[in-house]
Amino acid sequence: xxxSEIADNAGSRKxxxxxxxxxxxxxxKTAGRGGKGQTxxxxxxxxxxxxxxxxxxxxxxxxxxxxxxxLDFAEINLDRxxxxxxxxxxxxxxxxxxxxxxxxxxxxxxxDGVRLLGRGxxxxxxxxxxxxxxxxxxxxxxxxxxxxxxxxxxxxxGEAA
Length: 161
Description:
Blueprint: H1 56-59, E1 74-77, H2 78-86, E2 95-96, H3 98-104, E3 114-117, E4 127-130, E5 132-133, H4 135-143, E6 147-150
Keywords: Ribonucleoprotein, Ribosomal protein, RNA-binding, rRNA-binding
GO molecular function: rRNA binding; structural constituent of ribosome
Family: Belongs to the universal ribosomal protein uL15 family.
């Protein structure tokens, strides 16, 4: 076989149909778009229209709402914090808060605050100031001899959690 003998299989490449090029082509005049109207125009489609049938987005019930008071936290686990301490990115002797974690690159941005979660093991004695922390995370920090200061306002017993 020579390089000049290489060719595509028969029928593997089909030429595109040039529409709107006279009635003899079979795709002249309306170019396969039917008659006049909205769907014959370019760039126009009726989004969600199902031919008169009730569209799916109207058949399904509305549900839920967006809470405008919702807080979005940057979450950090104990193992990630320990990795940063081992890599000397975070000083274990200093107070660890959101600004320190962002500066060290442990969290990208503080968002509405940092929440400490309990995955992993902590070996260092730390003083941590975070907006919130899970019970296992607090227990692990205190077991290692450290303290956790929660910056979030404390909810009363009467308030819903």
